[in-house]
Amino acid sequence: MSEFWLISAPGDKENLQALERMNHVTSKSNLSRNTKFAIPDFKVGTLDSLVGLSDELGKLDTFAESLIKRMAQSVVEVMEDSKGKVHENLLANGGLKEKMKCLKIDLTSFVTHFEWDMAKYPAKQPLMNVVDTLAKQLAQIETDLKSRTAAYSVLKTNLENLEKKSTGNLFTRTLSDIVSKEDFVLDSEYLTTLLVIVPKSSYAQWQKTYESLSDMVVPRSTKLIAEDNEAGLFTVTLFRKVTEDFKVKAKENKFIVREFYYDEKEIKREREEMTRLLSDKKQQYQTSCVALKKGSATYRDHKVKVTPLGNPARPAAGQTDRDRESEGEGEGPLLRWLKVNFSEAFIAWIHIKALRVFVESVLRYGLPVNFQAVLLQPQKKSATKRLREVLNSVFRHLDEVAAASLLDAYVEIPGLQLSNQDYFPYVYFHIDLSLLD
C-alpha cells in the first residue's frame, strides 16, 4: 500500500513500552510495517506561538499535497505518449546532478527513511522561520508551475486546432495538404479555378451539368482531387467575371463552392507551423537518451529502489532551478522542470509532516519535549480497521474519552468533535502516496 500513518506517543518509559507492544502485535499479525521517524530538536518558543503554527502548518500541508498532485498530473499530461513510465519520473531526492551523478529514490523509500535536511531547513532557527522558508519555496514552485503549464497548454491547444483543421470533413478542414499547384490556373488575368464540394450521390449530375451552370466555364476542366465519406472535392476552371453567377447556380444544385485561394507562401507557412508545433510539443517531454543503469540498495529492514549514479548528495542549498535543469541533458525542458520541482515539493511536504508531528506532540504531551514518532505502513486495506483498534487499545490511556468514543462511533461526547474521526488518543497524521488516483 502507498498509505502511511505517522503517529507519536510520549517518550517516557510507560509509553515506550506501549510502542513496543504495538510493534509486537502489528508485526505478529502482519498489520503494518513500522519504522522510527526521526525528528530533530527544534526551538520550541512559546506554546501560544505553537498553537498559531499548528493552524498554519495544517493549511500548508493541504497546499503542498494539492501542489504535488497537480505536478504529478502534469507529468502524466506531458508524457502522454509514455504514460507507462510516469512513475519512473515521480521520484525524490532531486533531479540529475553534475555529470549524471545522483541517487534517485522512490517516494516510499524516501518516506520510510526520512532524514531532516539541515542544509535547506536549519533546525536551530525559530520554527516560524522554517515554516516560512517552506511556504515561500512551495509558493514559488506553484507560480512557476502555473506559467509553464499555461504555456504548454497554449502550445497544445494551437496544435489541436491545427490538427482539427486537417482531420475534419471537406467543408471545414484545411486544404493545404490536399491541393497542389498543378490543380489551379494561376497568374491569369481572365481565368480562375474554383473548388467545389459535390455529394457522392451527385457525381454523375456534376459531370453532366457543371459546364452549363454558367457561361464561360472551360469544358472538361473538372477533376476530382480529394474525397471523404460524404463528398468529393472537384476543381473547375472558368472566367473570373462569371464566378459569382456560377456560385449561385452551383448552390441551387447543392454543389458548394469552397472559398479557397491558392497561396504557395501561406500553404508553406501553415505546413511549417504544424511541423514546428509538433516538434515543440514533443520536445517538452522528450526523455533522456542516456540509459540509466538500474540497481538496488538495501536498508536494514526495507529494500530501497534506487538508480545509483554515483554521488547521492542533494542539491546544494541555494542551487537554482536553472542550475538543476541544465543538468538533465537530453530531456525536454518541461518534463525536466517537473521532475526536479516535483521532488523538491514532495520533500518539502514530508518535512511539513515532520513539523506537524513535532508541534502537535508538544501541544498534546507538553514540555519538556519528549516523544517518539513512528511511521506505520498498513500492509493491506482490509487490515486498517484492525490496526486502528490495536492503536486505540494500546494508547487509550493517553486520552480515555477519545479512546472510548472511537470504540463506539455513535457515542456523543459534549465538546468533542469527532465527526471526521481525525482525533485519536495519540498524535496522528496521514500520508497518502497515491498521487495519481
Short description:
By secondary structure, the chain is α+β, with helices and mostly antiparallel strands.
Please characterize this protein's 3D structure.
It is a single chain. With 437 residues, this protein is an alpha+beta fold. It is built from eleven helices and twelve strands. It has helices spanning 13-28, 47-78, 107-112, 127-167, 203-209, 243-252, 264-285, 321-326, 333-365, 384-394, 400-407; strands at 3-10, 32-36, 91-92, 103-106, 191-199, 223-227, 231-239, 256-258, 295-298, 303-308, 371-378, 427-432.
Main beta-sheet annotation: 4 strands, antiparallel
Q: How would you write the strand order of the largest sheet?
A: 2-11-1-12
The run of helices and strands is: EHEHEEHHEHEEHEHEEHHEHHE
* Radius of gyration from CA coordinates: 33 Å
Query: Which residues sit in consecutive blocks of at least 5 with pLDDT less than 50?
Result: 94-102, 287-330, 409-420
- The averaged pLDDT comes out at 82
Tally of DSSP helical segments: 11
Spell out the key features of this protein.
single chain, alpha+beta, four-stranded antiparallel beta sheet, 11 helices, V-type proton ATPase subunit C
Task: Give a topology summary.
Elements: E1 3-10, H1 13-28, E2 32-36, H2 47-78, E3 91-92, E4 103-106, H3 107-112, H4 127-167, E5 191-199, H5 203-209, E6 223-227, E7 231-239, H6 243-252, E8 256-258, H7 264-285, E9 295-298, E10 303-308, H8 321-326, H9 333-365, E11 371-378, H10 384-394, H11 400-407, E12 427-432
Helix pairs in contact: 1-10, 2-4, 2-9, 4-7, 4-9
